[in-house]
Fold this protein.
Amino acid sequence: MRTSTRVAGVLTGLTLALGGAALAAPAAQADIPACTSMATQAGAGATEAVTAACHRGVNGDLQGCVNGLTGAGVPGGAANGACRAAAHEPR
């Protein structure tokens, strides 16, 4: 195999690997602390149910997040806002 072909293959593989890491990075930057903080300010205790619901919001399941938070005692509007905060990067 020629050196130029090998180098091109290595660079292509590296580009694909780094591109995949960049796509996964935004989910890791979602804001669970903001979600749980908003939920507790709205009247829910800092429980596992609140944290689990906020994790659902981070993963894009906004309806599941809202349902989980309202089940934990957060009013609907506050639950919706907290779940939307979970889906965004920290500021």
